[in-house]
Amino acid sequence: MNNMLKNTLKLIPSTLGICSNIMFQQLRTRWVDCRMIRDFKRRKCVVEYADERLRLRTILKNKVLPVAIREDARAMIMELPRNSHPYRTTYRCALTSRPRGNVKPFRISRIVWRDLADHNRLSGVQRAMW
Amino acid sequence: MKAEKENLKLSTAKNKKGSFKKVVTAAEYQLGKEMADAIVGVAKELEGDKEQIKADLVDKVASMKAPVAEHILEAPVKERDAVPKEPVNFSDLIGGMAVEKIAKARPQVKADTQYSRAGRVRGSLKDKVDNEPILASRRRRFAPDEPSVRAGLEESVPLGIFSDPASLRKAKPLLPIWEQMHQRDLQLAVMHPPSNIYEEMISWTNQGKLWKFPIDNEQGWEKEQNVPFSEHIFLDKHLQDWCPKKGPVRHFMELVCIGLSKNPHFTVEEKKEHILGYKNYFAGKSKLLKELGAV
Q1: Is B155 left (phi over 0), alpha (psi -120 to 50) or beta?
Q2: Where would a tag sit more exposed on chain A, N or C end, judged by fewer CB atoms within 10 A?
């Protein structure tokens, strides 16, 4: 959230002599930060090449076809763009873009999760007590 | 100023103690002190019969004001501001003015048309015709200017920007988002928000957010409803045309078909596309396959 505010403040040109405390409201666009946008672009690439990748992988990993074919498939798969590899995507928090400590089924970070759960915004989530 | 004001006075009055009471002029009584001062000032500015100008101005302003209610007129006035109780001869003091018009409500329309810009223009033009002397400043202010260039719609050669001007009338305006929003407005006008939780849950069910009863595991997957299961399972027919009858390629493709037949998540089209993809791949590697002796 702080990052966002700083980014928005940078937009105001200081040459105008306006006090940079004009924007007190949080700027909420679709993407929290650039890392999120990059991750989205990678995911798009993954979807684009998903079928091709799947077929090449099956040819690579099987033991039925001759080795030369498998080697050829390996060469082909390495020629594909790097961002088509699903391994390059990160499961970021949808609200804060936190890369680690995310609760996967909810797609949010543990901090946001806790906040929402305490305010009764998560269906079926309750404070543990036993 | 003082002398002129005296003409507007009702009378000078002396109370018992001999000092002059505050005298209220007719204009002040009708319109207020500020207006009376303004009228006097205006009369001073303009040339002509000052008394007549003052009288006219008072008349016009009074006609525009709302008529004073009877009970206000008859209300007991404070002694300090009281009007003298002697019978006042209005017609004598305010030369020819009809003061009783306070009670009458002049129709607003007449005032508007008479004193609007158009009315003033007409009046000034009439004055022009009557050859009365008008001040240069007034003329500039009120008389309309003559147009310097006369524009005709069909005098010059057309530019030819539009090849078919008649079709423009039929053409739809390019406002797709406007249309969408208009449709949305119409829908919202008819819809109302849910009045209770039951209606809310009904709307959720219709949107697909809630399961429908009786529970159907394939809810939301209407695409493949009409496709028989045999098409999902028996995929050998797609291998008939191109795949060799024996060899590692056949072995591999049969494994692929078994795998796809067990996969419930793909649609039939997607499975066909996968098999086609393999076909294209092997077609591209036919030279290599022949060298290896796999084909």
Answers
A1: alpha
A2: C
Q: Return the residue of B nearest to A76 by Cα.
A: B281
Is there a domain that residue B205 lies in? no
Of the partner residues B248, B278, B289, the one whose CB lies closest to the CB of residue A55: B278
Structural domain total, chain B? 2
State the residue for tokens 């223009």.
B121
Q: Where in the sequence of chain A do the CATH 1.10.287.1480 domains occur?
A: 29-90
Contact A16, B242 (CB under 8 A): no
Q: CA B248, CA B278: separation in Å to the nearest integer? A: 14
pTM of model > 0.80: no
Parent domain of B22: 2-95
pLDDT tens-digit readout, B174-206:
888 999 999 999 998 998 889 999 999 999 999
Is the CB of A58 inside 8 Å of chain B's CB atoms?
yes
What is the gyration radius of the CA atoms in chain A, in angstroms? 22
pLDDT, one tens digit per residue, over A57-90 is: 999 999 999 999 999 999 999 999 999 999 999 9
CATH number of A29-90: 1.10.287.1480
